Here is the input.
Amino acid sequence: MSFLSLKGLGKRFGNFVAVDQLDLDVERGEFISLLGPSGCGKTTTLQMVAGFIEPSSGSISVAGRDITNLRPEKRGMGVVFQSYALFPHMTVEQNIAFGLEMRGVSGQQLKSRVGDTLSLVRLDGLGQRYPRQLSGGQRQRVAIARALAIQPEVLLLDEPMSNLDAKLREEMHIEMRAIQKHLNITTVLVTHDQVEAMTMSDRIAVMYGGRIVQLDTPYNAYEHPASNFASTFLGKTNKFDAQALPAENQPSSRVKIGSHTLETAPYRLRGTVHAYIRPEKIRLSPAGSPGLSGKIKTRLFLGTLWMLEVETELGLLRVSAPNQDPLSHNEGDLVSLTWNPRDMQVLPAAEEAHA
Amino acid sequence: MPSLPARINWVPWLFSAPALAVFVSMLLTPLVLTGLLSLYVFDGMRGIQDTLTLHNFVEIFTDSYYLEIFTRTAAMSAGVTFICIAIGVPETLILSRMQGRWKSIFLLIVLAPLLISVIVRTLGWSILLGANGLINQTLLELGIVDKPIRMVFTMTGVTIAMVHVMVPFMIMSVWATIQKLDPQIEQASLSLGASRLKTFFQVILPQLLPGILSGSIIVFALSASAFATPALLGGRKLKVVATAAYDEFLSTLNWPLGAAIVIVLLVANIIVIIGCNRWVENRFRAVFEG
Here is the structure.
C-alpha cells in the first residue's frame, strides 16, 4: 500500500475549481513532483496535504492513517516554503531547534540533533547567525534543515528553489536529491520548473486545470507525453495539425500533414490529431540528401547545443544540434531533415481528452 | 589620502532653510526663553525678579506635591501605554486579516478619534461617563448597580478617554510592522508542531515587538504631555504635569515655576524616549535591520 495517498481530493473557491477530484499515491521514500503552470492547482494540493487549506472533498492519508481533518501542527510534515519563511528573530540554531522544542526534545539531545542537521545541509559554523545575515542559498539550506530536523515522515517542498539564481539552483537540485535519498524521506515537490522536476523526481505528476494529466517517470513523461499539454509543457517540441490515416498492417502508423504523408509512432486515433517531434530528435544533413528539405532561418548558440529554426514545407521547425564540432550550417543554408518515425508522437487534437 | 580642500555644499542648507527658519523661530526660541524663565526668582508680592536661581527646580524635586503629580503622570502614561498595547495589538491583527471594504471601514473607525477635536471628544466622554450619563443610566436601569459609579474626575475616566485617542497611534505603528510579516512564517510554525497560541507568542509577537515598542514610545510621550483630556476629565484634584504647569502660569502667575515644571517634563520625556530607542536598536539590530 502506498505511503501518502490522496483520494478524490478537491478544492473549490466559490465557483472556481482549484483542484478537481485528484488521486495520487506516493510510495515510501519516493520523490514526486507536482509540475504545472501557475493556477494548475499544484500549490493548493500541497497546502491541503500540509493542512493549511481544508479540502472541499476527498481524503488524505499517511501510512494508512486518515489525516484529512488533522490540524497542520499535528501532521508532523516538514514543509519548505518558497519564501523560506525563516523566523527572523531567531538564530539559525534556534530556527532549526524550534520544531524539536515543540516536540519536547531538550538538553544534549536537542543540541546534537541541531548540530547533525546543520552538518547535513553543510552549514556548520553558521548556527549563531540570524537569517538576515545569510545569503539566499544559505537561507534555503536553513529552511531545508528546519524542516528535516523534526524527522518528518513526509517532506513538502513548495517551489523552494525559485528564488535562487540558475547556477545555485542546479547545485541545490543535486544536493537536495542526495539528501532525500540518504534519508529515504517521502517527498512531494511543487514546481513550475520542468528541469527541476525532471532532475529530482522519481515520478512527475503533470498538472493542468486542477487535475493530474500525466503521472510517470521523468523519462517516460518526456518521451511519451500522454497529452498535448504535457508534450508542450515538458521541454520544447514541434507541433503539427494532422489528419489520422488508417493503419495498413504496418509496424508504424501514418499521418497526413498538409499534403505530406509521414510515418509516425503507432497510434489508434481517427480524424484530426496533433503530431509532435522534439527538436533534438531531428537530424541535419546537407541539402540534396533524402529527407525533408528546408532553409535555416535563424541560428542560436546555447552553449551545449545549437538551436536552429528551419523553414520547411511543413512549417517552421525547431531543430537542435549538439555542440560537438563547429556547426557547418549558417543562416540561409539549405539542409535536409530526417528523423526516426517512432519519434513522431501522435495525440488527439481535443485538449485533455483523458488523463 | 591627501585631504581635498573643504567645499561647502550649500544646496541642502538652502533647501532646508524655510523649515529651519520655522523651527528656530517657532520652537527653539520659545523653548530657550522658557528655559531661561525657569531660572528666575518669583516673589509673590513683586512678581518676577532679575536674580537667577535653581530654586524652582529644587522645589519641584523636593516638594512631595510635585512628586505626586509627576508620579501620577508617569503612572497614567504607563497605564495608557499598556492598555493601548493590550487593545491595539489584537485589533491590528484582526484588521490586517480583514478583506477589502470591511478593512477600510474599520480602519476609518479606528482612526476616527484623531479626526475629532479634542474638546468635542472629551466632552463626549464626560457626557457618557457622567453620574447621569448614558453608561450609569444603563447600569442603573439594568439593576447592575444601585448608585451611579463615579467615573468623571477619576483616573479611570481620564485613562479611558486617553486610551481612546492613543490607540490609533499604536495601531498605525504595529500596522507598519505587520505589513512586513511573511504570511508563510505562521504556516511554517504550525508545520513544525507549534500550537496557534505558541505560534502567536513565540513567532508572531516577537516580530511585532519593534512596532509595539515604537508605538509605546509615541503613546507614552503624548500621554505624559497631554493637557486637554486630563484637564476636562480629571479636574482640579487629579492634576498631571501639564495641568500643573498651566495652573502655575495662569492661576498662581508663578511663571518661573511653571517654566521649570515644563522643562523637567520635557527632559524626562526625552530621557524615556531616547532610552527606549537605544534599547530597541541594540536589542534588534541583528534581527530587523535593513
